[in-house]
Structures are given as C-alpha cells and as structure tokens.
Amino acid sequence: MNLIACVKRVPTTDAVVAVTPDGQGLVTDGLPYMTSFYDEIAVEQAVLTKEAAGGEVTVLTLGPASGSKEIRECLAKGADKAVVLTDDEWMTRDARATAKALTAEVKNLGADVVFVGKVATDRDNAAVGPMMATWLGWACVTDVIAIEIADGAGTAKVETEAGIETVSFSLPAVITCNKGLNEPRYAGLKGIMAAKRKPLEEKPAAVEANQLVVKALTPPAPRKAGRIVADVPALIEALRNEAQVL
Q1: Which of 1, 67, 137, 239 is most buried, by the most CB atoms less than 10 A from its CB?
Q2: In which domain, by residue range, is 133 found?
Q3: Does some domain include residue 37?
Q4: Residue 130 domain flag
C-alpha cells in the first residue's frame, strides 16, 4: 500500500512571536520550529497502517530546505522516504496554494491513502486536507479518531458536534487525523540512525499565487498583571465584580 503523510513545519507552541514592521507577517528569524502536532498523528497512523497492511510511507511537506530536521524526525519514527517541496515563503501561503502544490506531488507519487493532520497548529484553517481530496477526486474523511483499512476500503470513527459517527469509504482517500487516533511514538536511537540513510528528496515547489491576502496583523493586548488576594471571600468578590465570571 502506498501511503503519504503530509506534514507542516510550524513554530513551537511556546514560541514568542513578533509582528513585522509592515504589520503583514511574523518575524521568523530565530523562531524554534516543530512538526505540527496533528501532523505527527498523521505520520504515526501512516506507519501503523504500513505495519498492519504492508507498503511504504512517504512524508510530504511544503517548506524550507532547512526544515529537513523535522522531516528526518518523521523518518526516524518509521516513514520510509520523504519529499520536501522547497519554498522559503511557506508560512505566507494560503490553504489553497499549499493544497495545490501538495496535490500535484501526490499525483506524481501516486497513493492509496493520504494522511494529514486535521488542522495546522499555526493557522487553524483545517482546509488543506479537504481541498486536496477535492482536487484529487478522492473520498475525504475528516476528524478521524479511529480507523481500519483493508481490501481497498476503510471504516472510520469521526468526531462531530453531534457525537461519534462511524463511516465507511473506498480507497483512495484523504484522512484528516484528530487527537485520540493514536499516540505518536518517540524516535529511538535505531530509528534516528536509520533515518540518516533514508531518501530525502528536495525539489522546488510549483506554488500558485495566494488568493488570500493578509492586510494587517495585530498582536493581542497584553494581559493585566495578576495580584494575590487575601482569602477566599476576597477571591470570590474579585471574580464576581472585577473579572465578572461568577
């Protein structure tokens, strides 16, 4: 089975970001990065599927060549090879431009299943996976928390606002992975050493122009300084009259 896990390099969740002087982007110099949390779940599910049904896992990303560190970590966790569509402006791409570039490479690679995180932890758009499925003409199952794939078809449990739904689908398919689907493994020493020998291809990305244009970014207002209250009655009084949460 040919499996692809799409991942995104994002700033770490504890990174302190600043807006550029023109107010249209973020200062990226010196930012620490990580693989988006939900994309780690996607990689793990691709590897679990390979271990259960056989096949090969390719990690695919749109990002800078310097992002190969995060990709090597994915390879150390059990993926077989990786493709980096190099684009130094990856953080400014809208969901459509990103999905178009990834879709073109999925068509080039061929796949039975594409796993993606349900949402990237930097933009929270939750759009790339469904867009890819649309352009590929494949089934799309979103917010998956359990899945079984066999004999060219699959069954998944999907988290919805109304509860947990069970759906069936045929392959090929795009699966967006939610928290609870699995527990991403840590890379062991053996996997880290093996990752150094696994293929990692870098090629220039063919990226279309954005349709979404950021006009301005405004940092959130700083929080008011906290204070210590003397006792429980004073705390209740502050929560009721100052914070107005009671």
Answers
A1: 67
A2: 2-219
A3: yes
A4: yes
Residue type present at position 31:
L
Q: What is the pLDDT of residues 108-160, one digit of tens each?
A: 999 999 999 999 998 888 999 999 999 999 999 999 999 999 989 999 999 98
Residue that has been written with the tokens 């996607």 in this structure: 42
C-beta separation of 8 from 35 below 8 A: yes
**Placement of tokens 């068509």 in the chain:** 107
Tokens encoding 243: 């914070």
Residue 234 belongs to some domain of the structure: no
Asked if 42 and 7 count as a contact pair (C-beta separation under 8 A), the reply is: yes
SS3 171: coil
Assigned token pair, 141: 């199952």
173: CB partners within 8 A, 6+ apart: 113, 114, 133, 138, 139, 140, 141, 154
pTM: 0.87
Contact 202, 87 (CB under 8 A): no
CATH label of the domain that carries residue 16? 3.40.50.620
- Between CA 146 and CA 180 the distance in angstroms is 8
pLDDT in tens, 160-215: 888 999 999 999 999 999 999 999 999 999 999 999 999 999 999 989 999 988 88
List 201's β-bridge partners, or say none. Answer: 83
